[in-house]
Amino acid sequence: MIRALSVTEVRAAERAAMAQLPEGELMQRAAEGLAAVATARLAERDGRSVVALVGAGDNGGDTLYAAGLLSDAGFACAVVLLPDSGRARVHPAGLRAAELAGAAVVVAVDDPAGAVQAVAEGDVVLDGIVGIGGRPGLRPRAAELVDAIADDAWVIAVDVVSGLDPDGLDPDGDAVWADETVTFGVPKPAHLLPAGEGATGRLTVVDIGIETDEFPAAVERLTHDDVAELWPVPGPGDDKYSRGVLGVVAGGETYAGAAVLAVTAAVESGVGMVRYVGTPTPVGLVRHAVPEAVVGEGRVQAWLVGPGLDPQATGAEASAQLQVAREALASDLPLVLDAGGLDLLTETREAPTLLTPHAGELARLLSRLGPTVTRADVEREPVRHARRAAEQTGATVLLKGSTTIVVGPDPGGPVRSQTDAPAWLATAGAGDVLAGLAGTLLAAGLDPLDAGSLATLVHGVAADRVSGGGPVRALAVAQALRPTVRDLLRRADA
Ligand SMILES: NC(=O)C1=CN([C@@H]2O[C@H](COP(=O)(O)OP(=O)(O)OC[C@H]3O[C@@H](n4cnc5c(N)ncnc54)[C@H](O)[C@@H]3O)[C@@H](O)[C@H]2O)[C@@H](O)CC1
């Protein structure tokens, strides 16, 4: 699992490490790690020149020391000092080290044209304007210099891209767009959350010897190696009931295919059994496409309610189906609530509950619970809105997107953030497959946070496998779940 610590926790972890080390040691380690990465990128690109953009804080200090090391190694190094008060505000020992090593110093406020020219000439540009002490946005001088970076330069952000909210929540303001971020000790939330992930580029973590395991994570990301740890693998004593029976209330006369996709995904991901409840058309399709599914009600360990369900449907059969859906919501069993089923949520549930909206559905849910929220609002601040929905409903919320976010109802709990899927997965029916997969995991006893994030990872990997760089269809993703789970489990044996 990749863990990112909030700025507050990072500072606490750094303080603990600094108490054990000589003064300045952490900064030296950071600078050495940064210089090593810059050297590698210069070698890969046959580059000779480095330009360092340097701000007033310790982030600028790391960057100045790294510029000194790169100068010593024979690269042509320029450092551009951004603060209004020039030399007086930047890390003094770092500046001395860079100058002693032969780096050319340009004070941007004194020589704006020289600064622009220096920046334009860098094969590698180090963004050391601000790190975890930064507020969102770039000041005009910084923005002008960032604009002057050559298109083919390799931009390395030092610790955190300047202009981002390091905690990854506030989307306001311009930011540097980095090819790579070299971060120290541990990832920061901006590296893993939608507001910052694009601008972060490739993430390289340099070990500077800070211990972070006992500090709580603000953001977590499951990796392929976590699958074997979390996946419910049956043992010799298991039968189909002990492995988990999933009741699926999905599909209707309008969106009948959603039932096939969700049930297929549940079966392909190894559920003990599916009991399917639907109206005549999807019942016929499910019987035909997934003979393993049992049609009709019975005992289940968890419910999936909602894919393709029309909460407004009328008529005897649709009303009977909606009645089962309402009973599932009122039950004390774990539940995945998706798509049309989200409209049926009227009160807080005690049992484990996973809501799986996309941005539009989350906006609709939040608007029903409080002031109007638009889809654009959710897309702008996905974590805040997912958290609000989780707090208001008491459920775990999985907000689907190119980065999918999963948050539990505890406001202090971590955000799970997954980006495993190719963009081709943005296709009709993909959500029905995810819901079926999450249902399998909830029925097997996983908690909603693990079920949601693990389902997102496996769904994305299956889509990648089917895509191979080309289009995917949702049914193919569902059918790829079996080999995908098998291969991910095999990694543990390798
Ligand atoms: N604390 C430590 O032990 C270590 C810190 N390190 C480095 O230190 C950094 C944190 O240093 P600081 O706490 O000094 O903070 P920063 O260097 O990130 O930024 C603080 C300075 O930037 C100014 N500032 C904030 N937002 C701005 C904006 N949008 N535009 C222009 N200026 C802005 C602030 O007024 C302040 O002067 C880390 O990101 C990391 O690079 C590393 O040396 C590793 C060890």
TrEMBL record:
(6S)-NADPHX binds at residues 58-62, 131-137, 159, 258, 308, 358, 432. AMP binds at K400, G401, S402, T403, T404, G431. Binds 1 potassium ion per subunit. Keywords: ATP-binding, Isomerase, Lyase, Metal-binding, Multifunctional enzyme, NAD, NADP, Nucleotide-binding, Potassium. PROSITE patterns: YJEF_C_3, YJEF_N. K(+) binds at N59, D127, S162. Pfam families: Carb_kinase (PF01256), YjeF_N (PF03853). Residues 10-216 form the YjeF N-terminal domain. The keyword GTP-binding does not apply. Homotetramer. Catalyzes the epimerization of the S- and R-forms of NAD(P)HX, a damaged form of NAD(P)H that is a result of enzymatic or heat-dependent hydration. This is a prerequisite for the S-specific NAD(P)H-hydrate dehydratase to allow the repair of both epimers of NAD(P)HX. This is Bifunctional NAD(P)H-hydrate repair enzyme. It comes from Intrasporangium calvum. The lineage of its organism: Bacteria, Bacillati, Actinomycetota, Actinomycetes, Micrococcales. The gene is nnrE.
